[in-house]
Amino acid sequence: MWVLPSDEQLDYDKQVLTEKVQAQRLLVEGKMAEVMSKVGIVHKDTSAAHKAFGSAGLYNDSEGDFYLGINHLVDYARLHLGEHKEQGLTADELTALDTENENYLTAIKTQRRAVSARLPRV
Fold it and tell me: Quick check: pTM over 0.70?
């Protein structure tokens, strides 16, 4: 016999996945802040060089814009890594940020799929 999950169970499942997305975003935001603090030593936050990293409005961006913005930040930082090595910015740090950003995308996809899939339980 097939039993559909209750609305309460579906809501709980959605809440758990939403919390995972939010936690992952906070992790990415923290890593982004670490990178940008090192960039800020070289470039004032009001300078064009600092703004080129594209981090200014990311905290308020939608999930998709945030994900793409972090991709841009990582790509741009890799191109200009030499300018910030003295402040401690490393390729490994950028790879870690990129990896956590991909984990963020995976969490979003998992959440969206779970919300849209109302599969019966046995």
Answer: yes
